[in-house]
Automatic annotation (TrEMBL):
Keyword Lipid metabolism: no
Enzyme class: lyase
Gene Ontology terms: cellular component: cytoplasm
EC nos: 4.4.1.2
Family note: Belongs to the trans-sulfuration enzymes family.
Keywords in alphabetical order: Aminotransferase, Pyridoxal phosphate, Transferase
Protein name: homocysteine desulfhydrase
Residue numbers carrying N6-(pyridoxal phosphate)lysine: 211
Amino acid sequence: MTTSERDKNHFYTQVSHDSVDSRHQGAITMPVYQSSLFAFETHQKFDEAMKDVLAASVYSRGNNPTVMYLEEKIARLEGGESARCFASGMGAISAVIFALVGSGEHIVCVDQAYGPTRELLADLSARFGVEVTFLDGKDTEGFAAAIRPNTKLFYLESPTSGLFEMQDLPALASLAKAHGIITAIDNSWATPYFQKPLSMGIDLVMHSLTKYFSGHSDSLGGVVVGSRELIGLIGHRSYLNLGAAMAPQTASLITRGLRTLPLRLERHQSSAFKIASHLAAKPDVVRVNHPGLAGYPQKELAARQLSGYGGLFSFVTRHSVENMKQWATDLDYFRIGVSWGGYESLVTVGAAPAKDIEDGSALASVRMYIGIEDPDELIADIERNWAKLYEPSLRSQSL
Ligand SMILES: *Cc1c(COP(=O)(O)O)cnc(C)c1O
């Protein structure tokens, strides 16, 4: 099921190579069509284009050549027929949900899904009469038990981006198919370089392009990939009318980022693995959540579904939140901030999961994103400041 070495090498060709497009004077990069509308020589041609404003360039909320170019490229990378780009990841996610589920219908969603996605679903449930069940994504049988006659969508995210828990994608895809339910997955963490959900039977793949695709922390974007039929439905029902279209300048930036996606991911993966392994060996680190580590509880599933791991992981520690926040503040090479997927290493600190606090095993949780810096310099930075956690004045604040 995982991507083969051959497929991974081909990915490099796919991101680099484009077929010759004679419309642009041989320009090797797609020009930025910085235009809101497109005019026609004759009214007859205009009438023809107006029959499908998603397929023809009439108005940039429906179709812009620079955006479409990126859409075609991402569709090929995911192995899908068609794709739509959006102004942000949440633009894509909300468009998928609005297009596929209406009032009185039911969604089953992974309880560790991206926070704003869960907030959106909770709001749809409270204010728009959409039924939502959140459940543990590890519990495949729980999904079967949650199915109702009005269930329309399984909303998945695997691995999740806080605890890095996985769902059994082929099993959930076939369960959903047997009940006429559509499956959609947030694949931002893995990217198509490390995980291809469509090949496992999933219907729709979404990404925050803000993260690895962009790769340079300079733009927001989202995408959904799937069959021509489903992407067409999303296009007409919510892409056009909710209006979260990607700007052409953004499409150009994200296309540029995409050219080096596999190169960057290899680097993030090897550095993050080295640093996660280093942290896992510490006596005061209780657990490192990283699907590539030996202690990962869903190791077998990870080996089946993922062909690599990227740069984002988390760990829980016995030190207090306050002390870990000071540790994070003192780091030289890690910036404190949300998001991830760029060149720069990032860190955020919060409370450990409730069960760890209750059973007295850990106090703080740390999410790390490993950029493209020298991993040994990052480890030295971590160590230099870790030593301060044991200064006598702080010691009493750890478990
Ligand atoms: C960032 C993120 C999103 C949302 O994407 P935006 O581009 O910020 O709207 C969705 N899912 C995951 C896993 C993310 O990390």
